[in-house]
Automatic annotation (TrEMBL):
It comes from Cohnella thailandensis. Gene3D superfamilies: P-loop containing nucleotide triphosphate hydrolases. Pfam families: ABC_tran. Part of the ABC transporter FtsEX involved in cellular division. This is Cell division ATP-binding protein FtsE. The lineage of its organism: Bacteria, Bacillati, Bacillota, Bacilli, Bacillales. GO terms for molecular function: ATP binding; ATP hydrolysis activity; transmembrane transporter activity. Homodimer. Forms a membrane-associated complex with FtsX.
Amino acid sequence: MIEMHDIWKTYPDGTSALQGVNVVIDRNEFVYIVGPSGAGKSTFMKLIYREEVPTKGQLSVNGFNIGKLKPRKIPYVRRNIGVVFQDFRLLPKLTAYENVAFAMEVIEASKRSIRRRTMEVLDLVGLKHKANSLPAQLSGGEQQRVAIARAIVNNPAVIVADEPTGNLDPETSWGIMKLLEEINFRGTTIVMATHNKEIVNSLRKRVIAIERGSIVRDEIRGEYGYEV
């Protein structure tokens, strides 16, 4: 599913974000990526959905060699990767329905399948009744649910969630985690970067800890392991 072999990432300014990372994430896993700020977590996540490319090493996602991927192949790889951000990144002038449907329009799905699937995923995230609402009319938790609906609408094999509960209150955060667990139960691999100690320690999943660009811990049913 996701394989990193001796991955290094050095930015043009000389910053070394990742150093010799080796990791394999299998299909249907739920993995937390934890570590101090500036440890390399965001770079780790961006490599998966090809926002960045490794400086050295081999990275394979869904059978594609990310480092050697031709530009014309990038959209095809991203169709199988849903991304959820901390700041939602919804299009402010589009309704909840239109934000989700847009992800299907990009891959030129039929209008009939767009209508059916968009309402299906809005129902899954509990927002079918808010389909015609603009982002500004939704709470933070509702906006994140729309973002998750958008991420899963094309049935991706992997969801990369970068601090998905970072801007949410505790109660709303638990609702988002329940939703992500349900999506994982349905067969989607989830890789989630987080600083939320309570969630990691309560919903025990695989934990990969990154410090100064290196993996220092990789545990099944692990704990957060840092003070917050």
